[in-house]
UniProtKB/TrEMBL annotation:
Keyword Cell inner membrane in record: no
Keywords: ATP-binding, Nucleotide-binding, Transport
Organism: Demequina litoralis
Lineage of producing organism: Bacteria, Bacillati, Actinomycetota, Actinomycetes, Micrococcales
The protein, known as: ABC transporter ATP-binding protein
Keyword Nucleotide-binding: yes
InterPro entries, per database record: AAA+_ATPase, ABC_AA/LPS_Transport, ABC_transporter-like_ATP-bd, ABC_transporter-like_CS, BCA_ABC_TP_C, P-loop_NTPase
PROSITE patterns: ABC_TRANSPORTER_1, ABC_TRANSPORTER_2
CDD domains: ABC_Mj1267_LivG_branched
Start and end residues of each ABC transporter domain: 9-252
An MF annotation (GO) of this entry: ATP binding
Length: 254
């Protein structure tokens, strides 16, 4: 069904029950294209599970996920990636033995209709290699291009994940705690790279983040998830002032 206002992402009545436990409880979200939205909530609220259901890692027991107004609920993770959905994980998801450059090149190659082949050696004139170098320059990692991804700092690993998203065709990106474990010196740079994804590349961005001060200064709207339900969805200012949010999340997170 088409809607008057287009959605980059729409989640309708999303539910997930595992072994009798309700993890997601009828979640509704409507995210217009080009939004930058934060998702917060206490530990165990279901934030990562929501991202897993949106990206196809888990299958919801009820409800639908629509991307660009198209129902993707039953599609695979790779099909969603091909449709333009990109994702980072709480723990780094790079290939540790491949170089920083290879990590980005392989993703760029797959986005251009190639395979995730690790055997295909890059050539200097390869479009995927060029895209990878450009993305690494954008995140400030070009000088680490030939270092194994497992050997770079935690902050640089997070920048590498953003470079992978920049080099692909991702239009809707889900960032799961991009600041987790990152030293305070690396935070401003990462914030700028997330802004690049949003403003320069034009991605719609949803991010889970426990660093509230950073998140509130970055996003346009915040969804608050408590026990598998969205209890508030509003601007950062209103969210910070909402007594329900303070009771449910901010107080318990202190
Ligand atoms: N596959 C699973 N089987 C059983 N329970 C699960 C499964 N996946 C998640 N859960 C449970 O669902 C709840 C939500 O977990 P989830 O990781 O989504 O929370 P979260 O909000 O991301 O938490 P955190 O902020 O700590 O990362 C937790 O109680 C978790 O134990």
């Amino acid at each position: 069904m088409s809607t008057a206002v287009p959605s980059a992402l729409r989640v309708e009545g999303l539910g997930l029950t595992i072994g009798g436990a309700t993890i997601l409880d009828g979640i509704d979200l409507d995210i217009p294209p080009g939004s930058l939205v934060g998702v917060i909530g206490p530990n165990g609220a279901g934030k990562t599970t929501l991202f897993n259901a949106i990206s196809g890692v888990v299958t919801p027991t009820s409800g639908r996920v629509l991307m660009d107004d198209r129902d993707i609920t039953g599609t695979s993770v790779p099909a969603r990636a091909r449709a333009g959905l990109g994702r980072t994980f709480q723990t780094s998801s790079n290939f540790p033995r491949l170089s920083v450059l290879e990590n980005v090149r392989v993703a760029a190659q797959a986005a251009r209709g190639g395979s995730y082949s690790l055997l295909r050696f890059p050539r200097g004139d390869d479009a995927a290699t060029a895209a990878a170098h450009e993305a690494l320059t954008q995140v400030g990692l070009e000088h680490r291009a030939h270092v194994p991804a497992g050997d770079i700092s935690h902050g640089d690993k997070r920048k590498l994940e953003i470079a992978v998203l920049l080099a692909t065709d991702a239009r809707l990106v889900l960032l799961d705690e991009p600041m987790a474990g990152v030293g305070s010196g690396d935070v401003p740079g990462l914030v700028e790279r997330i802004r690049d994804l949003h403003r320069v590349k034009g991605c719609t961005v949803l991010m889970v983040e426990h660093h509230l001060e950073v998140l509130m200064g970055l996003v346009e709207k915040v969804a608050v998830l408590v026990a598998g339900r969205i209890v508030a969805f509003d601007t950062p200012e209103r969210i910070m002032a909402d007594p329900r949010v303070q009771a449910a999340y901010l107080g318990s997170a202190a």
